[in-house]
Specification:
Length: 359
């Protein structure tokens, strides 16, 4: 029996991983206690997604468990033991803004929860591959010190800069910058994942994501950029853009493409690996450009307003350089571009609204 253990299994990446690895023949153990609803309210509830997984994935076993609860996690790890071949750690408090409202919860979920999982992996299944969904926020606001030029709809890196045409690589410092409390808790976990790999010779990897997106995202105001933006377009809800003239740039990667990258890493895992992972130079947009795309796809004019004050520590320009991962795993390729991704999100959102599943 080959087991993949997935935390945050009812969330965007977790649920995509459940379906992907079940199709690969794994027995999937999911851990998720729907804290997303506690963080962001009813619209962020993931119960709809969990119900879908339970009904559609026959090899899925679910555990309603808080990753901060070492004793409860220990029972799960003990039960499956060395049969656990892969751990995908996608559970998190994921919001830049929410973290400041409750720093203790943010840190204990993101940092302490990750430590619990690493230690239990070391104790019960040390040969397993441990993959952690980190974030580009571990770099803090260092990207904002890059030489950026203001264009009509976006900020863009200077034409003579080494990042032009490729994006930001893993050599950027994570030190001496303003991260947001969320960025700090995720960086703490990121470093611990690397350290368990190097110190205990375990196969571990940090995937430092840009904007992760897809139709399974329970997008909300504080987290889930493209999903929530399309929700606002479909339901004609107001949307607020914060700072940087709406020209801040994000690269966006579909959940399938990210999970497929995790699968490729499992085929030839490494010790303490770190990868920047996002949409890269081909799949990125500014806020203004994203709004226009949502309007074009939905056929609705969006109701949005601009607030001059940016979110503290937020990035003006982020594009991931994914060449390191592609060099290590040349068979991996993107399956989704921005238009295909947003169209899929639109279709799912529109259907949910028609079925009265959205307010």
């Amino acid at each position: 029996m080959s087991v993949v253990l997935i935390t945050g299994s009812a969330g965007l990446i977790g649920s995509e991983a459940v379906k992907f690895f079940a199709q690969k023949g794994f027995n999937v153990v999911g851990i998720d206690n729907n804290m997303r609803k506690q963080f962001f309210g009813e619209e962020a509830c993931t119960e709809w997604n969990l119900s879908h997984l339970k009904n559609k994935v026959t090899t899925y076993s679910h555990y309603d468990c808080d990753i901060r609860d070492f004793a409860q996690l220990d029972k799960i790890f003990k039960h499956f033991g060395s049969a656990i071949n892969i751990i995908i750690h996608a559970a998190a408090q994921p919001s830049h803004d929410w973290a400041a409202s409750d720093p203790l919860t943010d840190f204990t979920v993101n940092a302490n929860g990750t430590l619990n999982l690493l230690e239990l992996t070391r104790i019960h299944c040390a040969k397993a591959t441990f993959m952690y969904l980190s974030t580009n926020k571990v770099y803090g606001d260092t990207p904002n010190h890059l030489p950026l030029n203001e264009l009509e709809t976006r900020w863009e890196i200077a034409s003579d800069h080494p990042y032009r045409g490729v994006g930001i690589d893993e050599h950027m410092s994570i030190d001496q910058s303003k991260h947001s409390l969320f960025g700090v808790s995720k960086a703490s976990a990121d470093l611990m994942v690397q350290e368990y790999g190097r110190y205990f010779d375990m196969n571990t990897a940090c995937f430092r994501g840009g904007c992760l997106t897809g139709p399974a995202h329970s997008g909300t105001k504080l987290h889930g950029f493209l999903s929530y933006l399309m929700r606002c377009a479909v339901l004609r809800l107001p949307y607020t853009v914060y700072g940087y003239k709406g020209k801040q740039v994000r690269d966006n990667i579909h959940s399938f493409d990210l999970v497929n990258a995790l699968w490729h890493f499992c085929q030839s895992p490494k010790v303490g690996a770190v990868y920047n992972m996002g949409g890269g130079i081909h799949h990125n947009c500014s806020m203004l450009e994203a709004i226009k795309m949502c309007e074009n796809i939905s056929g609705n004019t969006m109701q949005w307003q601009y607030m001059p004050e940016n979110r503290s520590g937020d990035h003006m320009w982020w594009i991931s350089d994914v060449r390191k991962f592609k060099q290590d795993f040349p068979e991996w390729h993107y399956q989704y571009d921005l238009t295909k991704t947003l169209t899929e999100i639109y279709e799912v959102t529109k259907e949910a609204h028609a079925n009265h599943e959205l307010a």
